[in-house]
Write a structure and sequence with these properties.
127 residues
């Protein structure tokens, strides 16, 4: 089954699981692969610190590293290859929109990323 998944990466050219060719502009690469992961990590850290304060605990670096690895797996593998979280619609079809317009049009996706990061941060921080 995995032999059918063709990933061709190089100079911004990729194919997702459906065989759709993905061409990303430099701006969309920056948003999808740098800004979104950094945003999710920052929101997670805020939730994590609040959770630690509630539980009166000290931080565990392995929990933070595990979340960072998970975020990069989601943003670099699940999103572009499996079209998770409407990646193709956000960054290819509507690639010319500004970040603000994308956030307005696809607010459910960005709210999901935010809630996932905050709730997981709180959960890991408290327990």
């Amino acid at each position: 089954m995995m032999s059918y998944i063709i990933i061709q990466m190089g100079w911004g050219l990729m194919k997702n699981i459906n065989g759709k060719e993905i061409k990303l502009s430099r701006k969309n690469k920056l948003v999808a692969f740098v800004l979104l992961p950094l945003y999710m990590i920052a929101v997670f850290l805020i939730g994590y610190i609040v959770g630690l304060e509630i539980a009166s605990k000290w931080y565990e670096s392995t929990e933070i590293v595990a979340f960072i690895i998970g975020v990069f797996v989601i943003c670099a593998i699940l999103n572009p290859i499996f079209n998770a979280f409407d990646f193709y619609d956000i960054y290819v079809v509507n690639g010319e929109l500004s970040l603000k317009e994308k956030m307005k049009k696809f607010k459910a996706v960005y709210i999901a990323f935010t809630l996932f990061s905050v709730i997981l941060g709180l959960w890991i921080g408290i327990f």
